[in-house]
Amino acid sequence: MKNTIAKKTEGYGYKYTELADINKYCLENDITYYQEVETNEINQKDYIITYLVKDGKEEKHRGCQIVEARLSGINNPVQQYGSSLTYCRRYSLLMALGLATEDDDGASLTEVKEATEDDANKWTFQFGKYKGQTMNEILDEDEQYVEWYINNKANDFDKKCYEILTGEKIPTEQELKSRAELSSKINKLLTEKKVLPNEVSEHFGKTSNEMSDEDLKEVIKWLEGRK
Predict the structure, then answer these.
(1) For residue 61, what are the contacts with CB-CB under 8 A and spacing of at least 6?
(2) For residues 148-180, b (16+ Cβ closer than 10 Å) or e, as one string?
(3) Is residue 111 pLDDT above 50, yes or no?
(4) pLDDT for 115-133, tens place per residue?
(5) φ and ψ at 70, to 5 degrees?
(6) Residue 52: helix, strand or coil by DSSP?
(7) Crossing angle, helix 156-166 and helix 143-152, to 10 degrees?
């Protein structure tokens, strides 16, 4: 059974592993799965739990923590959470299956054709109830629909147009992965050092949701130095 999935090149030179590719891998290897969100009783954080079913046997795999912190200038909590949830589900599934993509360093995630302001202003929906209308128009009329599209259907060119129109930067998968790894390490240290999350907040003067990645790295150093 192969344990890699080739990244697919599509659209504007953006390479990525689609959920459809992972599902195809599961189908080829007679694996079914389902996922749910589980809250850890110790730290009260939400994690993705993946259940793999093969040959009538079910295995439970704990995956990524769902990141709730501010990322790359995004200040819309719904969009922020949606982006994190989508990424964490896919990454957790890859973890559970023991799969690696052919390019894990995330470098290809930046290989995107730069959208111009003119592109952004002309961008129109190609399906759904707003088919034929521009993103700019719908941002004024139904911002939640645009956010749903960006979080669930958009390719990177679409997202670039959204960033131009709104002034908000959408986190890349590599940024989400980095954030999830830092948060996971902190949670492990909190358990090992028997430190409560509010002690961290009191010491640093801010909650984890308000911390940058650099702040979280400082938290890790502080926790590692605790006896």
Answers:
(1) 49, 50, 51, 52, 92, 95, 96
(2) bbbbeebebbbbbbbbbbbebebbbbbbbbbbb
(3) no
(4) 889 989 999 988 789 989 9
(5) -65, 135
(6) strand
(7) 150
Nearest 5°: phi and psi at 35? -130, 150
Q: pTM, whole model, 2 decimals?
A: 0.41
Distance CA 66, CA 87 (A): 9
Distance CA 153, CA 147 (A): 10
Residue (of 100, 91, 50, 73) closest to 166 by Cα position: 73
Cα–Cα distance between 121 and 72 in angstroms, integer? 23
The answer to whether the CB of 94 falls within 8 A of the CB of 22 is yes
**78 CA to centre of own chain:** 13
The helix/strand/coil state of 61 is strand
Contact at 8 Å (CB) between 78 and 147?
Answer: yes
- The count of residues in the chain is 227
What is the spatial distance between Cα 28 and Cα 7, in angstroms, rounded to a whole number? 17
Distance CA 154, CA 148 (A): 9
Burial annotation 98-125 (CB, 10 A radius, 16+ → b, else e)? ebebeeeeeebbeebeebeeeebeebeb
Using DSSP's 3-state secondary structure scheme, residue 130 falls into coil
DSSP code for 42: T
